[in-house]
Amino acid sequence: MKPIQVGLLGIGTVGRGTFEVLLRNQEEIKRRAGRGIEIAMVADLDTARAQQVVGHHAKVVSNAQEVIDNPDIDIVIELIGGYGIAKQLVMAAIEAGKHVVTANKALLAVHGTEIFAAAHRRGVMICFEAAVAGGIPIIKALREGLTANRIEWIAGIINGTTNFILSEMRDKGLAFDEVLKQAQALGYAEADPTFDIEGVDAAHKATIMSAIAYGIPVQFEKAYVEGISKLHAQDIRYAEQLGYRIKLLGIAKRVNAVGTREGIELRVHPCLVPTKRLIANVEGAMNAVMIQADAVGTTLYYGKGAGSEPTASAVIADLVDVTRLMTADPLNRVPHLAFQPDSMSDLPILSMDEVRTSYYLRLVVADEAGVLAKITGILAQAEISIDAVLQRPGSESKQETDLIILTHTCLEAHMNAAMASIQALKSVLAPIVRIRKEELS
């Protein structure tokens, strides 16, 4: 049987890894797919570099449209990235009747609903395992392995750059800016690290997972996004003393509690996680996703979330899935990915004011009588109960102290109101530091 013919758009880090792994393991992959898979065409603006990678194994062109227009190409892999030309090419490939494999989380998080609808109309597949958590097969786990379950929540360390920075800040007691420079020198962070450190990259991935878990449209614009650039080393130290570690988590959670509006929380922000949780001990640039489901309980998926060959592993897994399905019943070629355009759930994305969680607060206060009583009084009026209080000498002078408060679960709107009242006290000498706390149990 003739091998499946694949066109590759973009042969950068992941593209090169995909080409090399597919070539290296071709016999193993053929055995698992039931048919050979070969990259027959590669499009890249740097044709000389691309030719050096592929040698005589594939035709190299500079115009990606040539790949899409080639009638012999069955599957198009998009590894260009971004929202612009990548979207145009993906839509063109769909209209040309090509199946598409992509690692482009930004594109899917923003334009996924439109892309999936177009694929549905044309009867082609869009596969994107590599778009979330690199080599960890989290999309397949949500879509297939946990298909019998009602997903209650997902919490993931899904950006290796930020996890590396937080790990180094905790281990070495260094400031954020210092560790960021170190991450850039080691290649963990880009020259412009904004998407990583401000939580945007993680929010793209959380958005995609929320769509699969809950059958809702992708709604990146409704996600709450907060990064790690404002975290202080002392908060990481205090969290450790209280039995927690700070992690940047992407969270998707179904809410259907008494007295609250039914909907989906979709948020990315730093969290205090108990050190006894496995996910709290994921260090360096590694990724992990924790899922709570009604039938199976808690599962954890751990591995490399980026890199040439780990991401290539996910891309090739998608190629194998498409190859298998291409020989299936023609009426069932579009896999049900839990967000088919004709059967989406209308569960709303909840605003942050409606989120219920617990909090870590650090206040720099005057070291005088009555301060704690005023603060706890304000919290009580806002229906916020206190779990623990820690007091440490201030770093600037003997006339001030660091007051750390852990709260029980409360409504974010109530916390916002309480913080505004506390901040207005003359005895509160600096902006209040707030970090949300997730017990993940």
Structure description:
By secondary structure, this protein is α/β, with parallel strands linked by helices. The protein folds into three domains: 158 residues, NAD(P)-binding Rossmann-like Domain (Rossmann fold, 3-Layer(aba) Sandwich), CATH 3.40.50.720; 166 residues, Dihydrodipicolinate Reductase, domain 2 (2-Layer Sandwich); 82 residues, Alpha-Beta Plaits (2-Layer Sandwich). 37% of the residues lie in helices and 25% in strands. It is built from 15 helices and 17 strands. The strands form two sheets. Strands 7, 8, 9, 10, 11, 12, 13, 14, 15, 16 and 17 form an eleven-stranded mixed β-sheet that branches. It has a six-stranded parallel β-sheet with strand order 3-2-1-4-5-6, sandwiched between helices. α5 links the parallel β4 and β5. α1 packs across α13 and α6 packs parallel to α11.
Secondary structure layout:
Blueprint: E1 4-9, H1 13-24, H2 26-33, E2 37-43, H3 47-54, E3 59-61, H4 64-69, E4 75-78, H5 85-95, E5 99-102, H6 105-122, E6 126-127, H7 138-145, E7 151-157, H8 160-172, H9 176-186, H10 194-197, H11 200-214, E8 224-225, H12 233-241, E9 244-255, E10 263-274, E11 286-293, E12 297-304, H13 308-325, E13 356-366, H14 371-381, E14 386-393, E15 400-407, E16 410-411, H15 412-423, E17 433-437
Parallel strand pairs: 1-2, 1-4, 2-3, 4-5, 5-6, 8-10, 10-17
Antiparallel strand pairs: 7-9, 7-11, 9-10, 11-12, 13-15, 13-16, 13-17, 14-15
Helix pairs in contact: 1-13, 2-13, 5-6, 6-11, 8-9, 14-15
